[in-house]
Amino acid sequence: xxxGKCGAxxxxxxxxxxxxxxxxxxxxxETLDDKPTGxxxxxxxxxxxxxxxxxxxxxxxxxxxxxxxxxxxxSVGTSMSNPNKVVEGYMKALATKDYxxxxxxxxxxxxxxxTFVSKEAFQNSKKAVKDSEIEYLNYQVGRGTYGLGRLTYxxxxxxxxxxxxxEKTEEVVLQKSDKKNLLFFNKWELTSIYTDTKLINNxxxxxxxxxxxxxxxxxxxxxxxDKNESTSANDVYVLSQVLPIQTPIKVTxxxxxxxxxxxxxxxxxDSYTARLSSSNISESMxxxxxxxxxxxLTEIYGGVVANKKFNELNSKSFDSNLESSYNNYLSSLASxxxxxxxxxxxxxxxxxxxxxxxxxxxLYARMNYNYSVSYTSSDEEKxxxxxxxxxxxxTYQMDGKSYKLxxxxxxxxxxxxx
Length: 418
Fold this sequence. Notes:
Elements: H1 54-80, H2 83-96, H3 99-106, H4 119-128, E1 136-141, E2 145-147, E3 152-161, E4 168-181, E5 185-190, E6 200-208, E7 212-215, E8 218-219, E9 234-242, E10 247-252, E11 258-263, E12 271-273, H5 283-305, H6 322-334, E13 339-355, E14 361-377, E15 380-399, E16 402-409
Parallel strand pairs: 6-12
Antiparallel strand pairs: 1-3, 2-3, 3-4, 4-5, 6-9, 7-8, 7-10, 10-11, 13-14, 14-15, 15-16
């Protein structure tokens, strides 16, 4: 028998080790066959450790992963609840034009139709006007201060920008939200001079009848058509929610004319009416209208000189409402002592363009012309040839893909003989 403590050999049945005195009760009786060959008889016996079971390993791994995730969770949550970090992140997104990131800072939508307040709408609007936005060259966010019992936070931002000669400093102001980040951490939201983050409700768009509308690059469907507000001349669409940012609006009329505008909806500007103007139509459209105006004025004066009735005029592009303007003009000329015997429209030049409240196109143009009049002087019939110009208004109604002249005004009634 060998001592389990010092390895000394003892007599079989001994209760204590003769060498070290340790208790031998319960020790295994070891024979010569049990002795390790080549080993020293008094060397201690080392017991082998059992390997960890698979279940224990899984538990240890799970606990370790949980601790790591908890550390990451606390680190991320702490960073998100740091107002200065929020301002730094916002400025970085602003400077790099990271529209995905900017959307998360500027827009917080919970309910309602999200079609025109979506990330797609936001990106379309920002990309359409990016050339007009400030291009930041450098910026630095300073340490801010809390206010209103730590409910607000204002951080100074010093920056330089393209085209600027000096650096500027402005404040970005945050307010503590009643919501939480990751359920436990404070959430800070922008309420700064850079943007108004409040959505605009029930934004009204009025366009000529049957025109197609895209708002922020997204087609406005009949789902948004307000039939009660619409008229025989105009369609009215109501968008339940829009973003308070500069937004592109494109209106395509029935005849293919495109009106392109940008608007910034706000609580003070919650509607848009599509109107043709010099700034939102192409040069080719101006040329087409001027050409049409010259043709129509030539036809009208051909009828005036020949003293034709309206229904005798040879033009399918005249609307029946033009008859009133035509007859009134004939009457005014008939009362003059000078008879118009010749009238030639030499040219028409564009001045301006607008749309009426009924949705008609009003063209203001300069008409250059040559004329002849006959008159009586000292009981003698005389004629006078001359040239002149006048500014005239022509009102057109769209008929499919063509124009119909609906009214004309400011036509010349006085023809000088001097």
